[in-house]
Amino acid sequence: MRNPFADGEAALKLARDTNRKVLIEVGGEWCSWCHVLDRFLNEHPSLRSRLHKTFVLLKVNVDATNDNAEFLSAFPRTLGYPHMYITDSGGTILFSQDTAEFLQDGQYSEQRFRAFLDRWGNQHD
Length: 125
Known about the structure:
Blueprint: H1 4-18, E1 21-27, H2 32-43, H3 45-54, E2 55-61, H4 69-72, E3 83-87, E4 93-98, E5 103-104, E6 107-108, H5 110-121
Parallel strand pairs: 1-2
Antiparallel strand pairs: 1-3, 3-4, 5-6
Helix pairs in contact: 3-5
């Protein structure tokens, strides 16, 4: 079982070293929309590449055996999964993103995801 506190510290260090922010994606293997999001990014390599240029990605699992409540207690409550949080390289929460906002006509929208990356890719700590 992974330790989100240790993983988070490693993500913050990498973000500081590479001048990026951290994008925390909360979900799990049970989450069908998490798989849809992964497929969407795999089918759009330019978006996936921009995502990784802008952010250090930290995935945090929540499931019936481990809800990672202690780690997630520092963040605003989620309305659904997957859910994203953006922090600066110091760990300050900058934004809470419901991924349903990326949906258009029942599927993830390349345009909406690109607008999200445009918004955060042009900002520096």
